[in-house]
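Key result, reporting period 2: structure in, sequence out.
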């Protein structure tokens, strides 16, 4: 790289001390902090330019520099083939491309072009004149910058035309500045995730990193050193094989691409829609998508090409492929297992293995399923139910005693009772019908059917016949009849009604009621 030129102030001192005061070159070099060779070179240039001391009055530093350092004769630097600096700037965004490689390609087409040090110097000078946001070098397919716009759009809903404000989501690819925007109702987590899924589908791939603002929906805890990413947001990133890099708090330059992308969307898209009325979110979103397509086809002043052209050439080949299925939004909730081995999710109860009673678990909730995790392992999966205060119970989650009881149904009880005998079926029918709810008689009926294992079907049916004759309707009565071997004994006849003057009879209470 060429050495830095000495300031004109020191060159004037060289001429003053050498020609005005007659000092030797050694003394001038020591006094001015220059080498003796540099002092000699400047005196020689001054003599060649025909200068004398004192210098002509009114000669400026620029004029003196032009006299001492005239353009080289023959092939001047300005006449050398100039590289296409915009092309160089774009190529540097490709993975593993360096200035050294680009200089070699430039010299292959222009053998009399600039040397490597001049090439680097001129490129940095050109890049320094660009906007600060373009001075960042983002490798192709490396980052997607995401954020919500500060401005919202009005939407008129319903017959009354009530106004709601729609949020505008913006995603920008770092290399090509290829832009995506869409309208959603809120900045809540479900909309935040949905916007990312739509952006990835629009780009046709996923960058290796996601740079986001510290939005509460995506970042649970904003921290300069160790930010905490929301569980659902991190799961979505893992599904697409990317990583979330939250910007540092109060450091907008960390996501400068998103800041500029939001500004462009607000000025180039939302400003054009300011006088239009939209009566649904879908209508607003369709208008935004049409203008986004025009924005990506619009040439950029600094680079002389469009965002889409840069995207097709740089970002699209470098993006990671999309997974086979899009991410399905899932919310997470911490729960504690109750004594009935169920957890409550949105006022519905889902079972887990009974061994996890009183343990803390995590529920992953999607639109179709509810999955329960314990220490990172899935222990239960249910179809999501919208029935409030109702249980969803799997048999394998129940203790063996509960499982045996649960296997009984009204139809099975009637069927089992019919196989024992007619009287057993009749007693079971009476027991179930006598309860406000048939399920309340299940235990009595199951107990009666279980007596067959000890006493046999014939004895149990006979015991049920005796219980019917005696007017008893319980398991304990049938069990007592069998234990006392009373099932074969005849039922005693009903005793005759006793008539006596001391027995009042039903008429007494009827007459008393009339007198009252």
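The corresponding designed sequence is given below.
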């Amino acid at each position: 790289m060429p050495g830095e030129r000495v300031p004109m102030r020191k060159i004037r001192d060289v001429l003053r001390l050498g020609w005005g005061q007659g000092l030797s070159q050694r003394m001038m070099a020591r006094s001015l902090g220059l080498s003796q060779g540099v002092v000699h070179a400047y005196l020689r240039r001054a003599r060649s330019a025909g200068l004398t001391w004192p210098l002509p009055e009114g000669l400026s530093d620029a004029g003196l520099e032009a006299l001492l350092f005239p353009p080289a004769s023959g092939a001047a630097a300005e006449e050398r083939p100039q590289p296409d600096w915009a092309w160089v700037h774009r190529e540097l965004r490709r993975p593993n491309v360096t200035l050294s490689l680009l200089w070699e390609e430039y010299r292959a087409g222009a053998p009399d072009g600039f040397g490597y040090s001049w090439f680097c110097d001129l490129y940095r000078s050109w890049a320094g004149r660009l906007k600060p946001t373009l001075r960042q070098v983002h490798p192709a397919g490396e980052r997607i910058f995401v954020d919500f716009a500060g401005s919202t759009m009005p939407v008129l809903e319903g017959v009354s035309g009530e106004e709601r404000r729609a949020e505008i989501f913006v995603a920008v690819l770092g290399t090509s500045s290829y832009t995506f925007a869409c309208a959603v109702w809120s900045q809540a987590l479900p909309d935040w995730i949905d916007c990312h899924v739509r952006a990835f589908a629009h780009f046709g791939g996923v960058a290796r990193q996601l740079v986001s603002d510290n939005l509460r929906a995506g970042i649970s805890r904003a921290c300069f050193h160790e930010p905490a990413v929301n569980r659902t947001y991190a799961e979505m990133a893992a599904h697409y094989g990317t990583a979330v890099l939250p910007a540092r708090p109060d450091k907008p330059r960390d996501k400068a691409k998103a800041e500029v992308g939001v500004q462009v969307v607000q000025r180039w898209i939302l400003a054009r829609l300011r006088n239009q009325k939209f009566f649904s979110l879908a209508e607003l979103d369709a208008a935004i998508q049409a203008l986004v397509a025009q924005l990506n086809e619009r040439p950029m002043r600094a680079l002389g090409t469009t965002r889409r052209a840069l995207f097709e050439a740089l970002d699209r080949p470098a993006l990671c492929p999309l997974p086979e299925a899009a991410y399905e939004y899932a919310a997470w909730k911490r729960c504690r297992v109750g004594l009935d081995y169920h957890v409550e999710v949105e006022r519905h109860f889902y079972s887990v293995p009974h061994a996890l009673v009183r343990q803390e678990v995590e529920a992953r909730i999607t639109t179709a399923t509810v999955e329960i995790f314990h220490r990172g392992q899935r222990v239960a999966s249910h179809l999501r139910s919208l029935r409030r205060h109702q249980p969803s119970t799997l048999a394998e989650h129940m203790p063996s005693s509960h499982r045996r009881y649960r296997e009984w149904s009204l139809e099975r009880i009637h069927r089992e009772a019919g196989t024992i005998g007619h009287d057993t079926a009749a007693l079971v029918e009476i027991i179930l019908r006598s309860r406000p709810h048939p399920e309340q008689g299940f235990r009595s009926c199951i107990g009666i059917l279980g007596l067959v294992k000890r006493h046999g079907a014939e004895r149990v049916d006979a015991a049920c016949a005796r219980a019917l004759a005696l007017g008893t309707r319980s398991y304990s009565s049938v069990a007592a009849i069998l234990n006392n071997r009373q099932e074969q004994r005849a039922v005693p006849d009903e005793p005759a009604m006793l008539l006596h003057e001391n027995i009042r009879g039903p008429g007494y209470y009827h007459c008393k009621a009339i007198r009252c």
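The first helix runs from residue 8 to 20. The first strand starts at residue 143 and ends at 148. This case is discussed further under Risks and Mitigation.
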